[in-house]
């Protein structure tokens, strides 16, 4: 774990302790701190903004109630994202998984400043991710997007590390097969080898 | 890297290492080895470039834009609502608990009253249960046959003076079964009875015929 991660985890633990005592300001701080990354993470499960908001609130509702039962066996972020993942799956089971296409999104939900290159990259990713199962999308997001280890992902998804490895492997194979074609010449030319 | 080259051990190793090198969480020697391998392997270079692109794309802010303040406000309202509901439950729970305690107290009082009543009835049983010893088997029991002419007052006086209690009789031959209040005094009582005027027979009830 990097020093920055250790510091962030220490801060999160302190906030959790304050929440156990009923400190709502601590809850608000933690909520704002995680809102963006949960929003992005859950957008790999569903594109429905209303569902994402509902899941984030369900997640923090549980965090508020269970703050005292956090045993510290993992990072706070692993714990919270795990709760969000399970809330997300539950919401999808109850309300159905109907990803919203970009074309169907209201204008106010689209970022106001989206440089062309970013939009192109986003579209490329979006089309590639559509080829993956929900679990594969989650693993890709957690490993490449959030930067979790295999052990963290296994804890979040409550499955063996071997299962995470298999999901990651199959996701990478699928993406390798579809992404170059989706990228087209323009994006391929922008690739730079480190 | 192509699937047909999966047997290539180095390429497989490079494939495994890529995500963690990209995350900057791989050990320095693993990162150095991958850099060296990429310099020699075009297929892995392409794969790594695509992985880098993937990571870059995933690092972009999500296109699903939500206002955290709106969500937070809803969450706090939900917590407030739940707190009020919980308080209401606690209040109703207190009322229910009190009612339950009162009911238990009333029951306990009723059982107590019933117990006292049954106990007092036990003291003056108008009957004898099968589990109780028969007068014949009671320790110190004596069969007494008073004279037919003996007056009731004399009989009562005799019983009183010898501290005897009639527990059976009279039977067909006019015999009573009496028990001295102190079982140890049976022999003395027997002697006194035999010596008294108006007593035709006095024999211990447990004696063998």
- Largest sheet of chain B, described in full? 4 strands, antiparallel
Shape descriptor of chain B reads rod-shaped
Overall number of structural domains of chain B = 3
Query: What is the alpha-carbon Rg of chain A in Å?
Result: 18 Å
InterPro entries (chain B): Anti_sigma_zinc_sf, Znf_put
Protein name (chain B): Putative zinc-finger domain-containing protein
Pfam family, one (chain B): zf-HC2
Organism (chain B): Dyella japonica DSM 16301
Word description of this protein:
The complex is a heterodimer of chains A (194) and B (209). The two termini of chain A are 24 Å apart. Helix content of chain A is 73%, strand content 0%. Chain A folds into two domains: 1-101, RNA polymerase sigma factor, region 2, helix turn helix motif (Rna Polymerase Sigma Factor, Chain: A, Orthogonal Bundle), CATH 1.10.1740; 114-186, Arc Repressor Mutant, subunit A. In chain A, α1 (3-20) crosses α2. Mean pLDDT of chain A is 82; it is low at 99-113 and 185-194. With 194 residues, chain A is mainly α. Chain A is globular. Chain B has 209 residues and is α+β, with helices and mostly antiparallel strands. Chain B has three domains: 3-58, no CATH class; 68-102; 136-204, Alpha-Beta Plaits. The radius of gyration of chain B is 53 Å and the shape is rod-shaped. Chain B starts with 8 loop residues before the first helix and ends in a 5-residue tail after the last strand. The interface between A and B is large, with 53 and 39 residues.
